[in-house]
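New to this. Help decode both lines:
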Amino acid sequence: MADSYAIVETGGKQYRVEKGATLLVDRLPDDEGAKVTLRPVMYRADKQVVLERGELEKVKVEAKVAEHLRGDKIRVFKYKPKKGYRRRAGHRSELTKLEITDVRMLSRKPAQSKQTADSSKQQAESSKQKTTQTARKKPAAKKAPAKKRQTTRKKPASKSASAKKKS
């Protein structure tokens, strides 16, 4: 076992990773050979265990996309005896093979990249615009009165028809 390892989350699943390990995960949109940063959920080195969100931002888990592949075919067969019910289906998962290149704890929180800094500025500006728009609310429009429903009633028999029956 390695000295340090991390638990990372990708595709809604958690995996235990060490430096130099390979990992099969659900298909990632990145090209082969691209570097991927995985989101750590836990980090452990020697006797140090990191679980807090603020401290986890200092943990860096890097991987390289080795290849994209498809998993084994899974066959699904549904059957109900004496009913004539049979259904057959198959499924092959789209997978990505990752090679873990680095698992380490940085001494300080990494600086934001230019893209994330720009996107956070845009989000802040859009939230300011939303608050100013909500402050200048328009008066509510009056609703039109609801239409009356027409009900169909059975009409009483005419007097002339009842007079004919009596005679």
